């Protein structure tokens, strides 16, 4: 079994993006989830997977608040407060499970500007525009 080398710079950026993530509305969250789960390159996914696995100390496929706090100490060299973790979880834990699962992590920790290219946004739009009308109706969103 090969040992995965973690790019410390990637870990730093992923945790920084995780802290600053804000999906203020459900449409943005759904769009980012679709792009993050379906349209990211293999390299983008693999790098974030390495960071996620490094943070997921118990290997259960989800990140607890304690695992996030430990990740901040290891990769940023600083403690993150309970309040900061709570704010992060409020923004990132979209299914309100009390954990950050892999998909939530990918969506929140990826570089949003890199994720939201015109091509990717166009593909996401087509995914929502079920009837191909060029508009997204409330029923298509549901």
Q: How much of the polypeptide forms β-strand, as a percent range?
A: under 5%
- The parts where pLDDT drops under 50 for at least 5 residues are none
Q: What is the CATH topology descriptor?
A: Recoverin, domain 1
| CATH top level label | Mainly Alpha
Q: Provide the CATH superfamily.
A: EF-hand
Could you describe the 3D structure shown?
The chain is mainly α. It has one domain: EF-hand (Recoverin, domain 1). Helices cover 64% and strands 3% of the residues. It is built from nine helices and two strands; from the N terminus they run αααβααβαααα. The chain is elongated.
Comma- or semicolon-separated keywords:
mainly alpha; two-stranded antiparallel sheet; 64% helix; 142 residues; elongated; Recoverin, domain 1
Could you outline the blueprint of secondary structure elements for this entry?
Layout (H helix, E strand, L loop, with lengths): L7 H13 L5 H14 L2 H14 L6 E2 L1 H12 L5 H11 L7 E2 H8 L2 H4 L2 H11 L9 H4 L1
Antiparallel strand pairs: 1-2
What's a quick, concise take on this entry?
This protein is 64% helix and 3% strand. The chain is mainly α and 142 residues long. A two-stranded antiparallel sheet has the order 1-2.
């Amino acid at each position: 079994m090969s040992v995965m080398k973690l790019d410390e710079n990637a870990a730093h950026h992923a945790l920084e993006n995780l802290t600053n993530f804000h999906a203020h509305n459900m449409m943005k969250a759904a769009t980012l989830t679709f792009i993050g789960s379906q349209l990211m390159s293999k390299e983008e996914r693999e790098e974030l997977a390495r960071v996620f696995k490094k943070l997921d100390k118990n290997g259960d496929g989800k990140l607890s608040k304690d695992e996030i706090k430990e990740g901040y100490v290891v990769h940023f060299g600083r403690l993150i407060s309970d309040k900061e973790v709570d704010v992060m979880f409020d923004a990132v834990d979209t299914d309100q499970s009390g954990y950050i699962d892999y998909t939530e992590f990918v969506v929140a920790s990826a570089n949003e500007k890199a994720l939201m290219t015109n091509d990717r946004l166009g593909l996401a739009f087509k995914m929502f525009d079920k009837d191909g009308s060029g508009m997204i109706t409330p029923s298509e969103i549901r």
